[in-house]
Structure formats: structure tokens, C-alpha cells
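G., the chain you wanted modeled:
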Amino acid sequence: MAPPAAHSNGQSPNDPARPQWQDGWLLGWGQAAATPPPAASAGVPVRHLPSPNHGPRPDGAVLDLLVVHSISLPPGEYGTGQVERLFTNTLDWDAHPYFQTLRGLEVSAHFFIDRHGRLTQCVPIDRRAWHAGRSCWRGRDNCNDWSVGVELEGLEGDRFEPAQYQTLSALVLALQAVCPLREVVGHEHIAPGRKQDPGPGFDWCAFARSPGGQGVWSPAADGGPEAG
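Predicted structure as C-alpha cells:
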């Protein structure tokens, strides 16, 4: 599939605030960006950590859905680097008893946002990351085919950090510069009964108030989505 066609968000291609993309990879934000992620102030707004776990999207796939997940490895421990190892197939299965439950698993997400709001991209958005599994949204199956997957470092049910909401908001705006993203939902909404993340600790109302959240539909919009 060809990279998603540019989707106008009122910015010109030469606008210094416009997010910069190349071959499906987010390179960063311009100096004049009004809503860069907090990690941009450190001069490294996006880290690239390519995962081998991806495949082609179906012809004609329209990227109009973002799926929010939560993950921490081991569960409830942050900043260990183990999530990144899982996504790159370098996790030592014997390093922790919990990892035995994941042995042989090959998964990925397009983006990972750690507790400090630092953004890592593992799969280019024109490729199909392996994040959703068996899923359905608004009558469309196989959400991996037409969604962007974002993992937030966290434990389902626990709260997330303000910096993570800021980065997620900035990422939504950056994605809208290149694809017609119009809905943001949780893994729990596209795979009800099978998945529970990001869980009740994710503040959908706070996200909806953010600059990125204001331009998309999310579960805060009307009291909760209808899955399937």
C-alpha cells in the first residue's frame, strides 16, 4: 500500500510548525509547533526503534482509527526497556517469570509513549502493525488493517501521566496531517470481553479536551461507544 495521502489540517507543506514525515515515519515537529510533545524540548522528539513485526495493509486501506493500548513489563514496572524488547523480538523470556506467558509472542505497535511522554515509533504508519488482534469496530473487522496502534506505558486500571496525554494529543494532530484520522478508541472497545486496556484509569474526558482530542470522536463524546 502506498503511504497515506496528505490530509489537510490547515497547514501548508512549508509551515515550520507542520510535523515532518518520511516514508511513514514521524521525524519530528518544527520549531514553531504549538503542541509538540513534551519530549521535543529535549531535542529528540521521536525515537525510531524498528520492529520486524508488521506486514502490508490491504489495498485501499483508509487510516481513520487510532487504538489506544496500555502495557508495562513486568506489569506495573516502568522504564525497564522490556516493552521495547518485546516489540523488537529481543525480550529474554527467562528474565522474569511473567515473560514465560509471552514466550514466542510477536507483537508491535506503531508508537509507544513512556511515562515521561517520550515518543518511540516502531512501525511506519503505512504498514500494518500487530497490535489489535481479533477486533471489530463499527462493523469492520480486523482493525489492524486500517488503524494506528499506540501503546501507553501503564497498567490497565491505573492512571496515566499528564505528559502521556500531551504526547498523545500531539501525535493525533501529526497523524491528521497525513491521514484522515477521525476516531480514537481503546483496545477494550474494539475487542470487548477479550481486552480491557487502557481501562478505567485512562481519562477520556481529559483527552477529549486536549487539542488533538477536540478534532476526533472518542468514547468521551457521547457516554461511550457501541462496539461491533
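The domain at 20-215 is CATH 3.40.80.10 (Lysozyme-like).

Shout if anything looks off.
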